[in-house]
Predict the structure.
Amino acid sequence: MVDRQKTDVAALTEAEALAELERLSALLLAANAAYHTQDAPEISDAEYDALKRRNLAIEAKFPHLKRADSPSDQIGAAVAEGFGKIAHEIRMLSLENAFDDADVVDFEDRIRKYLGHDGPIAFTAEPKIDGLSLSLRYEQGQLVQAATRGDGEVGENVTQNARTISDIPQTLADAPDVLEVRGEVYMSHTDFQALNERQVARGGKTFANPRNAAAGSLRQLDPGITAERPLSFFAYAWGAVSAPLAETQMNSINRLRALGFSINQLTKVCNTAAEMLDHYHDIEARRASLGYDIDGVVYKVNELALQRRLGFRSTTPRWAIAHKFPAELAWTRLLAIDIQVGRTGALSPVARLQPVTVGGVVVSNATLHNEDYILGRDSKGEAIRGSKDIRVGDWVQVYRAGDVIPKIADVDLSQRPNTAQPYEFPTFCSECNSPAVREEGDAVRRCTGGLICPAQAVERLRHFVGRAAFDIEGLGAKQVEAFYRDEWVRTPADIFTLRARFGTGIQQLKNREGWGAKSAENLFDAIDEKRKIPLNRVIFALGIRHVGENSASLLANHYSTWDQFEAAMTHATIGEGAEWDELLAIDGVGGVLAASVIAAFQNDKERAAIDALAAELDIQAVAKRGPVDSPVAGKTVVFTGTLEKMTRAEAKARAESLGAKVSGSVSAKTDLLVAGPGAGSKAKAAADLGVQTIDEDGWIALIGDA
């Protein structure tokens, strides 16, 4: 199957593009809410920008597929509950992004072409503050309201909170009757560190970075909390105004300074793209010593008359662009490489570093991705870092991807100790000593211990009691975690022996905190009720990698009973033999899934856990369909090629409703091949085996009105 997430936009089909736009819309909507509404970003700026660029590229190729709720047309996120709403008289827009010098040159070229202007055009260049956008409205010189950007149309009313910020004047002298000042609320590095120290002393929550601290402080329902937080404000723009501030961007900013606002002293007028880039690199060089976080430089056409001519796109002005910084870099020593085992068994290498400050954050750990990354190559075997491997003791360059996730960018071989040895990636799990295998095509090595691996056990147990699995009333994630922690439940089978072990005696469930005699008895009864359970739910509940609800049903429908399923998996050999061929013949089951199921049943430790569970259950066979009177009842049918009058899913469902068994491959057991245009190897295999082959029209004629 094609992975749309990794496919170049140019290679996407229309159907794939439609599905990808849906995926990107969901991801970007969630990211906007996390960043703008919850002040708790879940992905890095770099990841967000990449998702948005991909969305734009797909919309450019397939403009007719653009969604009505396209992320391209959205700004910020909806107002959080608990705040009043303020509609912006003039929308607060976002900015187009530039990621390299060529993008800035292109920005200037586009401005000139749009205006048809060959003469000099001046621009302002100013640091892009990493904080929270704020709009301040003054009437007759009095601050009357303050609002966050929100979704660009409506923001949160944070007027009382804004009044506590010393950089924000309460009154203005000699100002227009109506003046809306826009800028950024931020927190300095020194104030951020002091705030976190106070939070620790109070036993309160600490903040991950100054931006989160500033946003969370401004968006407090209690202004008294905001007043305690050391917030600052830079003014850089304006919205509604009853009289012009000046004729240029720079002079307007200076006017705001004269009115009492703090403006960024690094703001400068530049006359060419080259001058803008020189100032960008100058600011970039000063970044670490500024004392506050910035993530780029913003360029704006200086002459306001030209800004008005250039106007706006749907969500961004044509006359401005934000030139983002690359991730910050720092050098430090790699002290150790540890392996962490995730809930799916993935062995993830983590670099333990001599602590170093990167982007205002002390970094002591960094991801190393996988064993290929350590060796100096990507998942396709191509060289990265000039094929330099990573070893304990190395002097390494660290960066924060999107200023969030620490990673290792490079290795200085000139400082490599003579004692440094190539890193040997483990082939056994450090938690349970089960083999750690790497499947073909997978960049990650995984523990095969499954249910008996402590690192995976709790998550696997949570999966086991989930709604689509055993769904035991009264036994949820928290209860499972508590039982595992106290060694009452280590494998699924232990759940079904709880009554025998802890229903009576010295240690009883009813005596645990939060439990009583009635609640304990109710849980025991709920567990017993689930001893009788359908085969498909058992297969899904085992938590075998690649086996979802649908594939569990496919396996259950094919093998019908637990005994038949268990026997087939016990005797199967990955890649060959009758049992393997039978597995692959199930429509919807591929080699990766088949190998995963066989591996789980043939791992001694995991098999013991599975057998112990099966011994506690009454696993119900899949109910056999009653006899169906149709010309294909009892026959094994394979569909191949392109079906033009129905989808493959429709054809499969129709065949199964008529009592046929649909297979994904041709074998000696196949009774009928339905071949559409483009049929390839399956048609040849059918011809070689003498299997009857018909086209789609023949299929429709065969089943008729049956």
